[in-house]
Each structure stands twice: as structure tokens, then as C-alpha cells.
Write a structure and sequence with these properties.
The chain is mostly helical. It has helices spanning 8-23, 30-37, 43-57; strands spanning 28-29, 63-64, 69-71.
């Protein structure tokens, strides 16, 4: 899946996780993703990030890791 076909918020999540991987600070939980993007960190805001990340993970990127964290790794078929 090309990142360019994603809606802007989805692209921002992927780019953030890519940056975290390069910096050695990933994988990240959804609250931390929201914080780093400057998005709402209330329960509702984090739930929105989680829904976006899970939806993308089902398509293979980002990868869903243990403990509800996400990383930039690509996993064909969205394995978790």
C-alpha cells in the first residue's frame, strides 16, 4: 500500500512511526502517537488514533506489536 493514497491523518501516523524507527524510539502506543502529533490525548482522541492504526495494521502497515503498540515495520497480511 502506497502511503500517498492514504488520507492525511493516516499518512501522519505512518510518517511518525517511520521517524520513530529511524530514531530508535518505536514502537509506540496510541496515546504517544497522539501526543507526538499534537492531537487530542483524551480517551476519545486516543480511541480515534487506535482505530486508524488498527485499520492500517490489518492491511500490513503499520505493524501491530504486543501491548497495543505499533511500529513502522511492514507485515504482509497484517499479522500481529
Amino acid at each position: 500500500m502506497s502511503v500517498r493514497v492514504l488520507a492525511p491523518d493516516y499518512q501522519r501516523i505512518v510518517f511518525l512511526l517511520d521517524d520513530a524507527a529511524r530514531e530508535g524510539t518505536g514502537p509506540m502506543d496510541c496515546r504517544r502517537i497522539a501526543q507526538r502529533r499534537g492531537w487530542e490525548t483524551s480517551a476519545a482522541g486516543v480511541t480515534g488514533v487506535r482505530a486508524k492504526a488498527r485499520g492500517m495494521a490489518e492491511r500490513g502497515r503499520p505493524a501491530k506489536e504486543r501491548g497495543g503498540r505499533f511500529s513502522a515495520a511492514f507485515r504482509p497480511g497484517g499479522e500481529s
